[in-house]
Known about the structure:
Distance between the termini: 11 Å
Number of helices: 4
Helix content: 55-70%
Number of domains: 1
Mean pLDDT: 84
Order of helices and strands: HHHH
Low-confidence stretches: none
Oligomer: single chain
Strand content: under 5%
Amino acid sequence: MARVPYREKDGASPDVQALYGAIERTIGRVANFMKIMGHVPWLLRWTFPLGIAAQRGGIGLLDVRTKNLAILKVSLVADCQY
């Protein structure tokens, strides 16, 4: 369960709705952590491209298996459900 409520598209500001639309067009859905960042639109505007670059190989230093292991480890340490 999230400690901060998700900012859903319905009821969000036009700025956040536009960002969600861009995210949906790019990756097909708005991840829950992005919905949390929807409370702070400027943060979402900066972290979305960074996340895409990291996940899609823009950084290029890690293979997919290593990236997924890092995600799982961080989720475990932070006591999150993944």
